[in-house]
Amino acid sequence: MTNWLPGDCREANERFVGTDDAEWGIMNPITRRAAAALVTLTLVGAACTSDGGSTGDSTPAGTDAPGETTAPGATTAPGDTVEVVQADESKLDAVQSAGVFKCGTRDALPGFATLDDSGEHIGFDSDFCRVIAAAVLGDATAVDMVDLETDARFTALQSGEVDALVRNTTWTASRDGNEGATFLQPTFYDGQGMMVASDSGFASITDMDNVTICVAQGTTTEGNAAAEATRLGLAWEVRPFENVDLIQEAFIAGQCDGWSSDTSQLTGLRSVYPDGPDALVILPEVFSKEPLAPAVADGDTTWAQAVNWAIFATIQGEEFGITSENIDTFATTADPNIQKFLGQVVEGDAVLDPGLGLPTDFAYQVIKQVGNYAEIFDRNLAPLGLERGVNALWSDGGLMYSPPYR
Ligand SMILES: N[C@@H](CCC(=O)N[C@@H](CS)C(=O)NCC(=O)O)C(=O)O
After folding, report:
1. Cα of 167 from ligand 1 centre, angstroms
2. Which stretch of DSSP H or E encloses residue 145?
3. pTM score, two decimals?
4. What is the pLDDT of residues 2-47, one digit of tens each?
5. Which of 119, 155, 283, 376 has minimal CB crowding within 10 Å?
6. How far is the CA of 37 from the centre of ligand 1 (A)?
7. Domains parsed from the chain with CATH numbers
8. Residues lining ligand 1, CB < 6 A?
């Protein structure tokens, strides 16, 4: 047995599981049942607003967040406070029983989520869908990629059509509060920018007055553009379109002076522009904060924690220098922190089970099958010319930081 001396800095709730497995000490998933709990939820119009704010639309009957049930006989309207019962089965159990993870994503976001020639989803968001499947199911391919239009994201999450959303979605207070969504560790810290034709003569957004700015509807982009125009005292007509294809069509037809979105999106879209990337230029200003984060439906802490730790595994893996290529060389590591992280036997007879309901080798599966954060970034975003910037590890001066796995 492991002997811990008084004064060891081991958390009191750390739990180790004895195993006979010599090396990786892999344990079966622990099924965790969330206790039935009464939760009070204020329902505000959950429709597709730019920032999750109220549109005056009411939540359709029967569209409570998964795992939540409106008190019998209740009818809800925006602003009503209703009592909901959290179901005793977590989405974690449901996904593990189904053997497949339904990931809300997209097929038209270069760098983040597109289809390759064989119809496979590729991209940064697509890979984070696989990260979650690898952690929860031990199989990165056990994902059902569900393509969602921008303004269908939150309703798909609320209705249970998807188990989680990994779709270049900005975490904001209004979305946290109004959309029945719980946002998790951001995978990419972004900011909104402006793209214009190279021959437009605009060198800064401050040059742009009495112009039309085209944006995707149901995004944070819409509200940010209006706010920026007000802040700068400029007259911008902000024109929303249902999807990027329609924005591009309008831009090519000369109906848009500017095309505004998250800078990463603009970089990806510029790279596949029909007239070539040089026909477009991204102006220097970044005028919002867009932390792009996975989200799950409110009311299921067990599932939220499982998804969050799947994401953290990619960041911690990079910090440890563990890649999909070299991970098996760590089978003989003497570093107890890495042994715990990879679900190995620590000090001869135990593996760490932090009680997250994930297999104890989940981090191993994530990195082996999909890669660490740097590998996922380099595979999908570096080719577009995006640099790590604030998305570097904290130890390199960036914002990517995983809580310790112990
Ligand atoms: N991060 C922003 C914007 C995300 C977003 O959906 N951007 C548009 C801008 S190009 C988009 O992805 N549209 C793609 C589509 O679904 O066609 C948000 O969460 O609202």
Report:
1. 8
2. strand 143-147
3. 0.83
4. 332 333 333 334 455 554 443 343 333 333 333 333 333 332 223 3
5. 119
6. 35
7. 90-190+291-406 (3.40.190.10), 192-288 (3.40.190.10)
8. 106, 108-109, 149-150, 168-170, 216, 219-221, 243-244, 261-262, 265, 290, 292
